[in-house]
Amino acid sequence: MEYDLIIIGWGASGFSAAIKASEISSGEMRIALIGKGNMGGTCVNVGCVPSKFLIEKSLRVNDILHERNGVSRAELFSEVMKELRETVYKSRIGKYEDVIRNYKNVDLFNGNASFLDSKSVKVENGGKTQVLKGSYIIISTGSSPSIPQFINPDYVRTSENFWNTEELPERLAIIGGGPIGLEIGQAMRRFGTEVTIFEIADEILPGYSKEVQSTARNIMENDGIKILTSTKINRIISENSKCIFFGNNKECFDEILLATGRYPNTASLNLQAAGVITDNNGFILTDNKMKTSAEGIFAAGDCVSGKLKLETLSAREGVIAVENIFGYGNEIDFSTIPWAIFTVPNIAGVGIAENEAIQRGLIFDRRVIDASNAVRNSISGNKYGFAKLLVDRNNRKIMGVEVISPEAADFIVEGVYAIRFGLTVDDIIDSTHIFPSHSEIIKIAAQAFKRDISKMSCCME
After folding, report:
1. Distance between CA atoms of 48 and 53, rounded to whole angstroms?
2. Residue 381: enclosing H or E segment and its boundaries?
3. DSSP of 166-231
4. Ordered alpha helix ranges (H), 72-201
5. Cross-sheet strand order for the sheet of 226-228
6. What is the pTM of this model?
7. CB-facing half-sphere around the CA of 90: CA atoms within 13 A
């Protein structure tokens, strides 16, 4: 069977690519969309949707318990997890399965895909094999949780199967102090679970700035979460409970969540046959046009080598890949891709990180101001947070933004616009912000480049 475009993977990037190609071609491009498992990929099924659902419900635990006198935390947790799974199902149907039916030019193939050559893909399912040929191919197979060899997968849960948890654990261990570990750990703590986070690095959120790391640690510990950094786990056993051995110590838990990173779903694709090159970890190498090393083959999403693994970035990469198939010549601008960690308060950023700026030899100025400088934080009772701006010393343009604040995931887009459109510190200062608001902290950080903000009145321009 011959197609104009074959897309391997039906998650965020695959769907984005299929829809964009259909729009550009006015439904004339014949597309094969290959996938396996639940349609929609990581985000809707086991990532963004369930995790943010759990976070939102955890914020209302005490209110719900008060409203429903007599309901225990354990009963409430079981109800929440059932509702969570129902929400995931409805989101998958409404945003993926129903959506793709609108595109009559897209044929769906459920099965395992592998390359025969740079233009041919074999799809296997239940003993049935089909060979598809495509003028262009986009690889968007995503990633899966990484499980170290010394850990028996039967003893742990991952970010993909944690959502099947039925009973509220009294004690939860989380191996990995990255965004997933912090988000789920904080949510579970609100349900009353004792949470311990194990991190092999010397601080949680490895790779992030020191200000983010130290503030995040304060937030977690203030919530009653135990954090063990510089801690190497030797083994895990399952007896009456699940026990973790580290150093000369042993601690036992009801559940263990493994959140130690992800690996690309590329091993079974037979990429060598297509001439597609990966990095040492199996992630596909591309340029900023999402082109791989093989002519006519593009890649997008979490299977691509890169620092950020985000649903919105995956979708953007899918669009960029298609636009370049049509000859647009567009490139993805990673400096304008925002990221957020949905702890409370939120942690968010965009642009060049300080350590990257130093490594690249860039000349910049920085300002870091405490959250207390924004009156809204005092009003809302938020004790933790900051805003950090990096500015090009030569032209005063915004290079990077980091914020820890309530609602930071919503207003970090101000940093996106500032970087994308080359705004300066003065442009931020000259833009009137709402008072009192959490977003005002970005303007105050900009003002810190011009004056001593401790001598400013509210709403000072």
Report:
1. 8
2. none
3. -S--SEEEEE--SHHHHHHHHHHHHTT-EEEEE-SSSSSSTTS-HHHHHHHHHHHHHTT-EEE-S-
4. 73-92, 98-100, 179-190
5. 157-158, 255-258, 171-175, 194-198, 226-228
6. 0.94
7. 7
Cα–Cα distance between 103 and 208 in angstroms, integer? 41
Cβ(389)–Cβ(442) under 8 Å?
Answer: yes
The position carrying tokens 């929440």 is 80
DSSP 230-246: S--EEEEEESSSEEEEE
Note down pLDDT in tens along the chain; length 461 residues.
Answer: 999 999 999 999 999 999 999 999 999 999 999 999 999 999 999 999 999 999 999 999 999 998 988 899 999 999 999 999 999 999 999 999 999 999 999 999 999 999 999 999 999 998 899 999 999 999 999 999 999 988 999 999 999 999 999 999 999 999 999 999 999 999 999 999 999 999 999 999 999 999 999 999 999 999 999 999 999 999 999 988 999 999 999 999 999 999 998 999 999 999 999 999 999 999 999 999 999 999 999 999 999 998 888 889 999 999 999 999 999 999 999 999 999 999 999 999 999 999 999 999 999 999 999 999 999 999 999 999 999 999 999 999 999 999 999 999 999 999 999 999 999 999 999 999 999 999 999 999 999 999 988 878 787 77
Instruction: Tell the residue number behind the tokens 């790779």, with chain if given.
Output: 207
Cβ-contact 305, 286 below 8 angstroms = yes
Q: Is 410 helix (H, G, I), strand (E, B) or coil?
A: helix
SS3 309: coil
* Per-residue tokens: 189: 């703590």
Burial-class residue 173 by CB neighbours within 10 Å (0-12, 13-18, 19+): buried
Amino acid at residue number 269: L
Length of the chain: 461
Residue 90 has a CB neighbour count (10 Å cut-off) of 11
Residue type at 270? Answer: N
Closest CA to 132 of 107, 156, 152: 107
CA-closest candidate to residue 371, choices 188, 156, 211, 143: 211
CA distance from start to end of the chain: 65
CA angle 389/392/393 to nearest 5° reads 110
Would you say 151 and 246 are in contact if contact means Cβ atoms under 8 Å apart?
no
